[in-house]
């Protein structure tokens, strides 16, 4: 994550608004310690967390993956150029069992954010997330279980789901095997 300087970008946004860690934490619902860890690139926030931070600062989530300020009308991202975000942790500081890759980070002002999620373990913690926008998930490999409000939906290779991101949700590996998912998130 340090290569993409997500933490520095968040800190820059916070300082530009002349806000303390505590103020940002209070407004976003996250702990000051978590905001600090993110700003110092010690942990990688889940997509839902980045989405809430982006909304709070009124920026697109793509800003955190953007390397240059020049607008482009299209973008090609080669396999080796993807922005990998490892060590995704929860608000409580526990591993979430997945990592994600940004599949579009140069194009600014886009209406959707595509990611490749890789769920690598079955976690015992089943906390859920919610945020503004919509999500589309396409299971490319493995068998997943989607927690969606109070329902559990089993998804296999080739299955897909589209839902309102304000619903509490979490994607898990059904049996602990690796699951790869194309995820498209709107704001």
Automatic annotation (TrEMBL):
<feature type="domain" description="HTH cro/C1-type">
    <location>
        <begin position="10"/>
        <end position="64"/>
    </location>
</feature>
<dbReference type="Pfam" id="PF07883">
    <property type="entry name" value="Cupin_2"/>
</dbReference>
<protein>
    <submittedName>
        <fullName>XRE family transcriptional regulator</fullName>
    </submittedName>
</protein>
<dbReference type="InterPro" id="IPR013096">
    <property type="entry name" value="Cupin_2"/>
</dbReference>
<dbReference type="InterPro" id="IPR010982">
    <property type="entry name" value="Lambda_DNA-bd_dom_sf"/>
</dbReference>
<keyword id="KW-0238">DNA-binding</keyword>
<dbReference type="Pfam" id="PF01381">
    <property type="entry name" value="HTH_3"/>
</dbReference>
<dbReference type="InterPro" id="IPR001387">
    <property type="entry name" value="Cro/C1-type_HTH"/>
</dbReference>
<dbReference type="InterPro" id="IPR014710">
    <property type="entry name" value="RmlC-like_jellyroll"/>
</dbReference>
<dbReference type="InterPro" id="IPR011051">
    <property type="entry name" value="RmlC_Cupin_sf"/>
</dbReference>
<dbReference type="InterPro" id="IPR050807">
    <property type="entry name" value="TransReg_Diox_bact_type"/>
</dbReference>
